[in-house]
Write a structure and sequence with these properties.
three-stranded mixed beta sheet; 2 domains; 303 residues; eight-stranded mixed beta sheet; alpha/beta; Spore Coat Polysaccharide Biosynthesis Protein SpsA, Chain A; single chain; 12 helices
């Protein structure tokens, strides 16, 4: 099979009411570059009509490939998807989100002329009615030095830990697979990828619309999810180490402040151990850390 430029991975679970609009936006985003790409569609354990709809899409388009899994685990789903991709680069799309028309086509044109490991864009969060998907305007990506990319990730302003809205070289994802988490697999892995990336680019124009539905799983923070987030932060700290701990600590403080009672003893101890190793002078004088987070640290220590 001829190597493709870009693999678009669409993952879905019980999204029969959204998946066709999602797929239509993917096709329109790839536009006339679709022959240079492939769409890998993964239905993980759906019990509604999602499988039927995706199989129908695959039967009508030879650039689409449908797979059914029963993992019920997004980390495993993403690793499975990477193993099925034939593209040099991979971008991941959740089956209830949308892409701007012609955006991926322009990014593919850029990829054909440029070499990089990671291309990051911000997400456009949408609550309520999505905007018109036409009119996306190209902006030339800028190189981010490794330290700058890691800092921006930890500060969570330009971009966050989501895997959506990013284009990543397949060989990097093969070398560093996703942890087998049911959520927060992205923030656990992205620090490693940013550390290993030899060339990271940033494009200020978001091509991805992250639709925030009232029913979204990300809105329901169960005890299991809180503890997975703690595990992801433990992995993050192990990868980034002492140099970045003053910023990693801000995420740990937020978790302890809001969800301390939901953490297992083991995870609570891990979070507190990292805080104990945090260089406090660097933490308190840093303009990158909000005053409210510094205040929460003091409150936690006074309890």
């Amino acid at each position: 099979m001829k190597k493709k430029i870009l693999s678009v991975v669409v993952t879905a679970h019980n999204l029969q009411n959204y998946i066709m609009q999602n797929m239509e936006s993917v096709f329109h985003s790839l536009a006339d570059k679709i022959s240079h790409c492939e769409i890998i569609m993964i239905d993980d354990a759906s019990t509604d009509q999602t499988s039927v709809l995706l199989q129908d899409v695959a039967s009508k388009n030879n650039h689409c490939f449908y797979y059914r899994t029963e993992f019920k685990n997004i980390g495993k789903v993403r690793n499975f998807a990477v193993s099925r991709c034939n593209g040099k680069y991979i971008t991941m799309v959740d089956g209830d989100d949308l892409l701007y028309s012609n955006a991926l086509a322009q990014l593919v044109s850029f990829i054909e002329q440029n070499e990089f490991d990671i291309l990051v864009t911000p997400l456009q969060e949408v609550r309520g009615m999505p905007p018109a998907l036409s009119g996306w305007k190209w902006q030339s990506p800028k190189k981010l030095e490794s330290d700058v990319a890691i800092r921006e990730f930890l500060v969570h302003k330009k971009f966050q830990g989501h895997f959506i809205g990013k284009i990543i070289k397949k060989t990097l994802l093969e070398a560093y697979p996703f942890p087998e988490f049911t959520c927060y697999e992205d923030i656990a892995l992205l620090p490693t990828l940013l550390s290993k990336s030899e060339k990271t680019l940033y494009n200020e124009a978001p091509f991805y619309l992250y639709i925030k539905y009232a029913h979204s799983l990300s809105n329901k923070l169960t005890s299991a999810k809180v503890n997975l987030r703690a595990q992801a932060l433990t992995i993050m700290d192990a990868e980034l180490g002492e140099k970045w701990r003053y910023l990693t600590a801000s995420h740990i403080i937020q978790l302890l402040y809001k969800h301390n009672d939901q953490l297992s003893d083991a995870n609570r101890n891990r979070m507190n151990d990292i805080l104990c190793k945090t260089p406090l002078f660097k933490f308190f004088i840093s303009p990158l850390i909000k005053f409210s987070i510094k205040k929460k640290y003091i409150i936690l220590k006074c309890k």
